Amino acid sequence: MNAVEVAGVGIHPFGRFEGKTVTEMGVTAVRAALADAGVDRRGFQAAFCGTAYSGVAAGHRVLDVIGATGGPIVDIEAGCASGGAAVMMAAGAIAAGQYDTVLVFGMEKMPKGIIRSSFFAPWQEQAGMAATPAYFALRAQRLMRESGVTREHLAEVVVKNRANGVHNPDAMFRKEVTAEEVMASRLVCEPLHLWMLCSPNEGAAALVLRAARDGAAGGASVRVAAAALRSHLPGNVLSEATPMSGLIDDDVPAATTLAARAAFEEAGLGPADLDVVEAQDTDAARELLSYEELGLCPTGDAAKLVEEGATLMGGRLPVNSSGGLLSKGEPLGASALGQLVELTRQLRGEAGPRQVEGARVALGHTVGRGANASVVILTR
């Protein structure tokens, strides 16, 4: 099996860009990744595009602009995990020797407001069984009951991520906030306040993956040590174990836990080996739940990580150095790839003021529709 390395990364900032099409944003990210990798428009053999809202043949439209069609172009939809799914497929194809160099990109131009999803039947959506703040709130309430999480812990997650986002030029929100300001923002659904929820928005990100080169340069490259995608187990509708999931007080592993176990096994690593993590923070409680489901702490100890300052910059395991979705916002198809752009820069030592010193092992985690979870581990 070929080792797989990240040869180049590119990103279009996340935010709202009324004058740009989703295709234009995708082109910006792709061109940046190709340039970073030193690869021309004919220098890759296949392309995988993660997107949910961009329409039919979205990836084809991007590559048509730069004259790079002709090879296989595959659009992939797995909700927020679309980019992670694309990386898994691309890395697997390279590892198997099918291709030498593959382009992976994702982009989205999200509708404004609360995201609606055709994953759910109309009756489920009307009953609240959908990926909405109401559902997120139920998840948060369960976490508060079982892990000792308080509203103050939720606010501290926002404070942390928004502080990190100040130093990320590609983030939508680049202003520090206080816990008091977070708690003063409008209550959307108990216990979640407006600033505890990420903003669906627009943007794009891209990676060039290739079979790792031999020699000194290759030895210092960023490698894809693992890329895993897993889905929810039967009965656990959104793999979040809230009362509306169909299961209460169960021990069915979440999709994130399944993906994390698979990724750690593939990489031959464990949570203790990680130096920096980009974790799903669709809302503040989701980040805390991610700590437990990824094995960053024992079940029930998410609040303790916050209290210890473990996930702060300078802590023993910084989480969401990019500012996370709470700072960047979330264009679904670009979400996971945006994480990997950040982590690649961290491992290269190119993250500037938000650099995690000595970072050698990084993990990116996204959850899409609640039914998909991706975990990608990068090493240097």
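the 2nd protein, sequnce then structure:
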Amino acid sequence: MRTPLLAAVLAVLAAAPAPAARHDAEKLPVTRIRDLHYGDALFYFYQDEEFEALTRLLAYEHWNRVPHHLDEAQLLEGGLYLSLGMHNEAGERFARLLTDEVPTGVRNRAWFYLAQVWYARGYLEKADAALRKVNGRMSPELEAQKELLFGNVLMHEGRYDEAIRMLSLWRDPEGGRRIWSGYARFNLGVALVRNGRLADADPFLTAVGSMIATTPELLALKDRASLALGFAYLQANQPARARSALARVRLNGPYSNKALLGTGWADAALGDYQGALTPWMELRSRDLLDAAVQESYLAIPYAFAKLNANAQSAEYYESAVNSFDAESGRIDAAIARIRNGDMLRRVLTSEQGARYGWFWQLKNLPDAPESRYLYAVLAGHDFQEGLKNYRDLLFLNGALGRWDESMAAFEDMIETRERAYAERLPRADALLTSGAVQKLQQRNTALANELRGIETGGDMSALGTAAEREQWARVRRVEAALAGAPETPAYADLRARLALVRGVLQFGLNDAFKARLWQEHRALKDLNLALHEAQSRWIRVERDRRNVPTNTGEFAARVTSLKQRIDALQTRLAGAEHKQGEFLARVAAHQLEEQKDRLATYQVQARFALATMYDRAANAQGARTPAPVSPAGETPPAPEAMPEPEAPPATEPPPATEPPPAPEAPPAPEAPPAHEETPAPKAQEPPR
């Protein structure tokens, strides 16, 4: 999945000029690809192979293969570092590269998206600093998102007054997504609650909790707002208002368990214990792994005790003890499997198409007995970040393994080259000592002199065909024989016939002489070129004869050095992978141990409450048995605190040549009111 920031910074990579139009202030000017190696890196980038693209870019920079695109290459590297989760490296590069020479809109967009990533990673100070680098206003959609993000950063830093002022001035951009307005009002309401202004927060949270929602995201936001408002009123001892807010939460939503628990405590605070049993009984039928369900196992007998239904109360306390005990045993077995098994590899194997990249999220769990206990921990931010690191370590280990195989192939290539050199060396030495090229050059010189003599002397027969040269030689021999013959009529006739033959033959030779002379000059010129090429190759052979052993040794030394580095890195990666696996296993086991400890606490409280009931019944001496006191005394325990909401997933942007749109999911809203988690109800001391 590619980040929106990559789409923003890579507008510079367009390979052709844009048509005549007004330039987008939030995009870099277009440019042409002038270095082949830069285009090679872009090929892998557009194939979503960010790691390969980054590796090649760094190598090409090292060998100075992208001189015309050095700035663009480093900007692309920053985006790739960001996509791979190396946010500090990306931030340093952007701080160095996003100078005044880069258009203001591009700088603002880059700093905004970098602030989003730092906020999601928990680097609040860096996110604050990045947002303050945004100079001027961006497009209405991005400006609205920036203010929401800034408000979240301020709230996480505890600066609620500043967050309230900023969110109070927030305006929904024209044509913007409806969810932004919901998040803005929700965050403003939460900030007011945390600032102790519950009455001012009510209208905002009520508006969000009552809005018309058609998407799962809006429905979840509605439930979260109603739950936050309800728990805030419970904390403020206003159960009637809390109940009306909690009643808006859906029964099948992700917050239904806490809403049912809170509704029951609101009824109990109003004295309606019969009414409190309705949501608590519904809650009791749900998964015991949920903390709210576990608390309902104690709340139900507490309500029965308040209704003087002591038999039902004792029955439910005994059932709670047995349920807690059985679940504790299953958790022990799950912890043992986590510590002794390869949970992480099964987790990654269950995620089809899992690959490197910071924006990857775990969505599927392996089919294992312990998986049912790990939904909460695997969905947690800390575990997800640690799992990404573990997955990246596995990927890097695989990449180093492939490179190590390449080193073995290079060693084989060098060995083959050395063997071939040893086999060809005797023939090369024999050729070099033969002086073949010098002999050919001497022969060429002789041929050139001979041709020059033929041209100067007009020796037409020398360029004739073999038949013509033979005929010309016979004519000359006959002429020589007839030269000493007597002057008789017979010899005179022979001389006349010979003159005719000689004239015909000479005419043919003379007619073809110039053409044949040109052809010979052309052949001699081609021969000179061939001799020049032979001389060049001869020189290269002599040079390679001296240099090949040195080059081969240099290559072998480089390959050996690289192989040693790869081996060392593999050792380090193996150690880091082992430690990261142990850390994640400890995180998962710790989560289960916390669940077990909570169950143990609830179990002790149930046992103590049950013992208290039996003790009072035994000491009643026939009097009417009073209603047993709840494990927490007459005051019902405060509901558990709302968990911190998780950041919505980042969305995938369009291709890099398009302006990056607003991310589909907003920055993570602040958590609902800051209730301190109230411990489970404590049992009373036994009467003395």
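DSSP finds 23 helices and no strands in the chain. The first helix runs from residue 4 to 9.
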